[in-house]
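Human: Can I borrow your eye for a moment on a structure tokenisation matter? Separate attempts, laid side by side, tell us more than any discussion would. Could you pick a protein and write out its sequence and tokenised fold? No explanation is needed for now; the record alone will do.

Assistant:
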Amino acid sequence: MHRTGTFILPNPWDAGTARLLAAHGFAALATTSAGLAFSRGRAARAQPFPFTVTARADNFFHGRPDLHDTVRRLQAFAEAGADVLYAPALPSTEAVRAVCSSLDKPVNVLAAGPLLERSVTELGALGVRRISLGSALPRAALTAVLDAAAELAGPGTFGFARSALGYAESNALLSGS
């Protein structure tokens, strides 16, 4: 390619960006040491703005219900400099307590499964410092649309609209007015 003309050599920083760029037809890719360092949070603390590095152990998301391995991974992330440690899909409050008590950094959990039965106060008492909602808000919005569609297609009524935000209020919220 160097002998046949000028070409673009994009620089992916991880496997995902490499796949995306390759899928767009680029014949060659090269790594970027800075991009890789940025994605790993290295030399990054020197930036002129604050940020938080969150590291996640997705064992329970991927069918590997090994709490010991999850804690081991989170401890390694803490040693590598992560600010917050995240283990989504923990199966119980006992698992949450075990993860939190095994780490010396703030722990994030996902509000899902059995944790939906707990309040912010209860999760905080277990040692949790941050709670993510994941896809809960967009799923709640989709549920409202499906419920409205069922009402429209079924009895043909408009009761769902009674609790909807008004047009002017919606506009004000979204326009920043």
